[in-house]
Each structure stands twice: as structure tokens, then as C-alpha cells.
TrEMBL record:
Keyword Hydrolase: yes
Gene3D superfamilies, alphabetized: Metal-dependent hydrolases, Urease, subunit C, domain 1
Keywords, alphabetical: Hydrolase, Pyrimidine biosynthesis
Statement: the UniProt record of this protein carries the keyword Amino-acid biosynthesis: no
Cellular component, GO, one term: cytoplasm
Molecular function as annotated in GO: allantoinase activity; dihydroorotase activity; metal ion binding
Source organism per UniProt: Prochlorococcus marinus (strain MIT 9313)
Annotated protein name in UniProt: Putative dihydroorotase
UniProt xrefs under InterPro entries: DHOase (IPR004722), DHOase/Allantoinase_Hydrolase (IPR050138), Metal-dep_hydrolase_composite (IPR011059), Metal_Hydrolase (IPR032466)
Its EC number(s): 3.5.2.3
Length: 418
């Protein structure tokens, strides 16, 4: 972006408490200098002519409530530095990483080394609920929270209920969120795609709905018994699951993975990478139910839930391939098309799902546009571009969907240093 420019008019979303307005903004050296009449006056003093950007949107940065980065320093496919770079290019100002790692984040010293004073991309860390993520004994919850953990989580499956109960009763995490996935690995068995007609036709091993609904029922009962704890649900993926959650009188906040909102079993070729995700991909009915639940507030936030894999990993047979996708740069364009263009959502609704809701799940202040800040993104919903995982602004992970496909809508500028 040029050193200074006046964008007038441009659509602006200042924060969750204000609607989108058409106004002017003065940006200099990637800082927001002024809005409205003040922006026009200062630009005139600087001799800056207005530049029309009426089709573009200036908005707060996005927030990813959970993703995975197993080797942040020397990873073959993704490192903390490359992830920060890709996140900033995609408009993500905050990312929270689950504790799964080559050095499992279950003790305070393993939360160190993630701060970078030269970057505006904030990395939050979920501390592990159990030691080594094994689900057999509790980690030091109070120490983890005291030393910077944003909350407690484990992997993307449910822990033993007795251990969860014990941790919630002890309550050493205080008001910090506890993020648990309603997914039972034993019930899922070898299932790779949610049960249904499309699954049988494609020849995939079915994942029964009960692998989500049974652990979900247990977690909702724990939430009822311990309302003083901040329980969160990770990655709901089925129509029966959101129906159960929606009928709960006092329900916990819950996330959904972006991929489950834009595709389903009926939309993928059997050879595509997008089949192997966790939780399992569902049917068109599941996808429609998830979108409806996100619109009515039953679901709180959209997660990227990126799990980067290298080239060698993606060449394995489907039943040996680790589930997961990467690609922060794909999320906003895909959901803009799916939710704003096709489903008629407002910009405000989409930002509640991608920014303000995730902040609530993390118990963190919401992103908003403020004078003097670099925390902003500019999105052009009309720009056409080709998804290329080898581009400079893409993540380094090999398991990015839609390679070589033309997409519409792109973050064209972002003030974040990365």
C-alpha cells in the first residue's frame, strides 16, 4: 500500500457495536489516521486526492480460535514465522494454537518462545488439560493459566469424562475457557466420512453420528453441573449435534470448522484432499444445519483449525493420511461467497462468525478499528485470483484445497506487521 492515501468512499465496519457505513478513511504507513470529515481535511492538507474504493470493505482483523502447529521452530511444512506471515496476508490478527506439539504444551516452560515484538499477529496458546495429552492425569492447570495459556484444551477428541469431571471440580483454571471436542474416537472406529448414502456410494468407511452426539451429551451434562466453568465445544459437525445443542437451555459456546460450511460429501471428487478432515465431513443436510446454527447463534465462531502437512504426508493412501487441511487465506473468500453471496448474510453477521465470536470463545477483547492502529484488513469481494499454495503469501503446508482453482474475493491489504 502507498505511504498515504485517502480512500473515499469505502465501506467500513468499525466494530461489533456498529453497522457497516460508507465513509472515508486516511491510511498512512499502514496506520489508520482518521475517518470521515477529519480524514478528508487531513488528506487535503497533505495534497492527497481521494481514491474511490466503494466495492471494498475496511474491517477489523479476523480471529482463529484453534489451529495446530506441531513444530513451530523447525517444521518441514510450517513454522511459526511462515504461519504468522500467511495469517497476516489473510487478515488474521490473532491465532490460538492447540497444545498438540512435538513438545506437548502441558507445562509452563513449553508456553515460552511464541512472542515476537516485531509482529502484530498475536499467537495465543491453549495449555493441555492432561499431561502429555494422554488423558490419564491432569496437567498443572493453575500454572499454565498463570504463565499465559489462553485456556485449556487437549486434542480434537474428548477426554475421559472422569478426568474432565475432576478438573472441573478442582477448578484451578478459574474463569479461563476449557475447549473440548465432542468426538469419541472409539465410537468413530475407522470411519473417515460421516455415515450416509453419499458415503456408501463413494466407498468410504462411515463415521456414525453417535461419535459426536454421545460425547456431546456428556459434555452438556458437565456444563450443567459446572456452570461456573467456561466450557467451550470444538468443531461441531452434524445436524443431530447442533439440534441437541440448540435445545439446551443454557448452552456453552461452540465452534465450527470453516470447511464444513463450504463443502460436503456431495461436492467433492473422491480423490480430493478435502475428504480427510477431523471431524468427519458430513452431508448437505449437515452443512445446512451448521450454517443455520451459526446464523441463529447456536454456534459462536468459525475456526480455521489448520493442521499443516508436508508433501510426503499428502501422498499417503486415504486411510493412512492424517486428517486436516490448511489455508487461512481461503477462509474469508470462501465464506463470503457461501454466506454473504449465496445465503444473504450481512457483513456484520459474517464478522461475528470470523472475528467477534472467536474473541468471545477465547475470553479476549474484540478486534475493532481505532485511530492509530495497524489492526485492519481490506477485502475486495470482486477480485479474482488463482489459489496457488506456492505463492509468497500462502502457508507452506501442502494440504491446501483448491490448488489451481480460480476464487473470487481476496484480502488486498492488511496493516499488520508480521
Amino acid at each position: 500500500m502507498p505511504e498515504a492515501q485517502l480512500l473515499d468512499p469505502i465501506r467500513i465496519l468499525h466494530g461489533s457495536d456498529q453497522p457497516v457505513v460508507e465513509d472515508a478513511v486516511l491510511i498512512r504507513d499502514n496506520h489508520l489516521i482518521a475517518f470521515g470529515a477529519k480524514a478528508r481535511i487531513q488528506a487535503q492538507q497533505l495534497g492527497l486526492p481521494p481514491k474511490s474504493a466503494s466495492q471494498q470493505l475496511l474491517a477489523p482483523c479476523l480471529v482463529d480460535p484453534h489451529s495446530i502447529l506441531e513444530d513451530p521452530i523447525s517444521g518441514h511444512c510450517e513454522t511459526l514465522a511462515s504461519l504468522r506471515h500467511a495469517a497476516a496476508a489473510a487478515g488474521y490478527g490473532q491465532l490460538a494454537l492447540l497444545p498438540r506439539s512435538s513438545s506437548w504444551r502441558d507445562r509452563p516452560e513449553r508456553l515460552q518462545g511464541f512472542l515476537n515484538p516485531n509482529s502484530d499477529v498475536d499467537i495465543h496458546l491453549w495449555g493441555s488439560f492432561s499431561r502429555d495429552g494422554a488423558g490419564s492425569e491432569l496437567s498443572p492447570h493453575a500454572d499454565l493459566v498463570q504463565h499465559g495459556a489462553v485456556g485449556l484444551a487437549n486434542d480434537d477428541l474428548i477426554l475421559p469424562i472422569a478426568l474432565l469431571q475432576r478438573g472441573l471440580v478442582l477448578g484451578e483454571m478459574g474463569s479461563a475457557p476449557v475447549l473440548i471436542a465432542p468426538r469419541d474416537e472409539k465410537i468413530q472406529g475407522g470411519g473417515m466420512v460421516r455415515e450416509g448414502v453419499e458415503t456408501l456410494r463413494a466407498g468410504w468407511a462411515p463415521d456414525p453420528f453417535a461419535s459426536e452426539t454421545l460425547p456431546l451429551g456428556q459434555l452438556l451434562e458437565l456444563h450443567r453441573q459446572h456452570p461456573e466453568r467456561s466450557l467451550r465445544l470444538m468443531n461441531l459437525a452434524t445436524a443431530p449435534g447442533v439440534a441437541i445443542l440448540g435445545s439446551c437451555p443454557s448452552r456453552p459456546m461452540a465452534s465450527v470448522c470453516w470447511w464444513h460450511l463450504v463443502t460436503d460429501q456431495s461436492k467433492l471428487d473422491p480423490t480430493e484432499l478435502g475428504w480427510r478432515v477431523s471431524p468427519s465431513l458430513g452431508s448437505p443436510r449437515d452443512r445446512a444445519a451448521l450454517i443455520k446454527a451459526l446464523a441463529n447463534g447456536t454456534l459462536t465462531a468459525v475456526a480455521v483449525h489448520a493442521i499443516p502437512l508436508d508433501e510426503e504426508d499428502t501422498q499417503l493412501p486415504p486411510n493412512q493420511l492424517e486428517p486436516g487441511l490448511a489455508g487461512h487465506q481461503l477462509v474469508l473468500p470462501a465464506l463470503w461467497q457461501e454466506l454473504v453471496v449465496k445465503a444473504g448474510w450481512s457483513v456484520e453477521q459474517l464478522w461475528h462468525a470470523l472475528s467477534f465470536g472467536p474473541s468471545k470463545m477465547l475470553n479476549l477483547p474484540e478486534e475493532r478499528l481505532t485511530v492509530g492502529s495497524r489492526r485492519w484488513l481490506m477485502f475486495d469481494p470482486d477480485q479474482l485470483w488463482i489459489q496457488d499454495r506456492h505463492s509468497d503469501d500462502a502457508p507452506k503446508a501442502a494440504n491446501q484445497p483448491w490448488q489451481g482453482c480460480q476464487l473470487q474475493g481476496r484480502v488486498v491489504a492488511c496493516g499488520l506487521r508480521e
